[in-house]
Amino acid sequence: MRILPKLVYFVFSTVKRFNMDESHGLSHAFQVLHHSHNILESLLPTIPYLEKHRNIVYTSALVHDLCDRKYNPDVGLQSIQDFLQTETDLSTVETEVVVKIIKNMSYSKVKKHGFPDLGVYQWAYHIVREADLLAAYDVDRAIIYNMHHVDQSWDKGVTHMVNLCETRFFKHHEDKLFITEYSKNLSQLYEEEARTRMNLWKLLHDHDKSG
After folding, report:
1. Are residue 82 and residue 14 in the same domain, yes or no?
2. Residue 77 in 3-state DSSP?
3. Which of 114, 149, 174 is the last residue of a domain?
């Protein structure tokens, strides 16, 4: 089944329809798909049944932000479910699993309620959830999001980014949010890069203010 062409176009058209900014657009969806694929491949040697869940993982990775109420308050999950049931070969069960994954994978949901129990699909859930966390280490994305949805001020964008890094991104290991070796290892590298990038923006911000 060639599911990716239909999914990518669905994401592209939905992002365009709801004027979703680049912080939650197609590029971010591609990043989450990229990491989801790599995490899945890293687990297959020890958890071979995950091969059967590949389409669930890829679908969840691509569509996970399309139900974000900041952009899509009226249709959200229902539009995703309708599309998957009518335009793809995913079974009813697979579609329901995708919905459960994207409903329960956000950082805020996990911090508030912990991990859901999805039974045999638990690994599919963790793959996509971790992939989204890895993609979120992009500190520029935090500035962009803030400028689109909170305040257009560069100063406030940098302040928001620094706060997000220090209160969220740099605490993922302490909060035990990564359980796969792939994500544990790569997140350490990404955290170092995020710190370097954060410090650069702080330096430019402070230099600009002092000048």
Report:
1. yes
2. helix
3. 114
Alpha carbon 53 to its chain centroid, in Å, reads 18
List the end-to-end C-alpha distance of the chain, in Å, as a whole number: 58
Residue type, 181: E
Statement to judge: residues 5 and 90 lie in one domain: yes
Residue 11 pLDDT > 80, yes or no? yes
In the block, residue with structure tokens 């994978």 = 105
Per DSSP, the residues of 120-182 read GGHHHHHHHHHHHHHHTT-HHHHHHHHHHHT---HHHHHHHHHHHHHHTGGGTTTTT---SHH
Task: Report d(CA 184, CA 130) in Å as an integer.
Answer: 9
Q: Tally the domains of the chain.
A: 2
**How far apart, in whole angstroms, are the C-alpha atoms of residue 172 and residue 183?**
11
In the three-class reduction of DSSP (H, G, I as helix; E, B as strand; rest coil), residue 58 is classed as: helix
- The residue segments making up the domain with residue 65 are 1-114
User: For position 205, what pLDDT does the model report?
Assistant: 74
pTM: 0.90
Residue 57 belongs to a domain: yes
| pLDDT of residue 43 exceeding 90 | yes
Predicted confidence at residue 142, as pLDDT, reads: 82
Which whole-number Å values give the CA distances from 110 to 78, 129, 207, in the listed order? 22, 10, 38
* Residue 121, in any domain of the structure: no
